[in-house]
Amino acid sequence: MKIKVLHVEFNQRLYGGGTQVCYLLNALNADAFESVLVCSEKSDISRINFTHCDTHKIEFNGNLDVFASKRIIDVIEKTAPDIIHIHSRHGADWWGGIAASYSHIPAILTRRLEEAENLLGKLKYRYFDAVVSISEEVYRNTEKGLNEETLHKLIYPGVATNESKLCADGEMRKWLARAHNVPSEHKLIASFAQLIGRKGQADIILAFEKVISEHDNVSCLLFGEGNQLESYASLIKKCNLQDRIKLCGFTSDVTDLLAVIDIIVHPSHSEGLGATLMQAAACKKPVIAYDVGGVAELVEHNKTGLLVDMADINGLADAIIRLLDDETKASSLGNRAYEKVKDKFSVQRMKSEYEKLYREVYQGHQEHAEQN
Q1: CB burial string 301-330: b at 16+ within 10 A, e below
Q2: 36-79 pLDDT, tens per residue?
Q3: Are residues 151 and 177 in the same domain?
């Protein structure tokens, strides 16, 4: 018999977590698992046509939308899942957990943030039979808030290593030059992340003053959207870097763009692991990141990338300059990173571990029901 899994994903944009859900839904063995997706009717993921997944689009108005539980319960009653898998925060963890508990269906929560939960946040774990952490750092901090009965697993995210279209004809590079007014001869530095404080784009802006003092042929593209957009625009103007740093908005074409980017910079101040870093590695691109959270589990300093102490603006600038000066080093870091993600962060490995967990949770629930 198939195990039916109801996946709950409420992120509006396909950032790291949402992309992971897509990988998983496409990879799960359709002969053994039936997938149902609950998502916001206005989200990016709601527009994807999955081959083996029944998608239910519901109204969702953010963390405080207390009626979200009722809408999830309505889908549960229509689809009768065996397991509920909550993939996101932003209310999905609370309202999805409550809906699962009300419906007496075993639930799994995937946790991506490195920070330990506060006392209130820890209360939601009572709704879950199992919690998945995406890195060792996330695992250590999550473990502190769990009850002994809660199953806790470390499952690394996956990334496809065959998605990048290498754009040999240079069309993507030409498009970038036209779209963002970037000189065609410039080296390109890029960041792909939400424009929020903890992602650290302000540090890139401040570091770029030193970078351009050493290299006159380099531009920086900041892809993403968020509440710091106006603040970053003001900072770029204050530093007189309007011709060198471009705010490019959100993009879902990360792998295509990575093909023509020279260096990825990801100075996040808090990171469970870093989906952007995995995507860059899958495209053999050199990465520079702050040594925070679970980043070092992917980026080994001087082997698969460069690590910089958090908020070290001068160190961040020096790392960028180092890779601009040494293209051989940059290429070597990218190639080694590719080998690491291919072995440790494959989609196939991730899906196999989730399938094993689904079976374990389902069997445990069946045994508990028989005993009672």
Answers
A1: eeebbbbbebebbebbbbbbbebbeeeeeb
A2: 999 999 899 999 999 999 999 999 998 888 899 999 999 999 99
A3: no
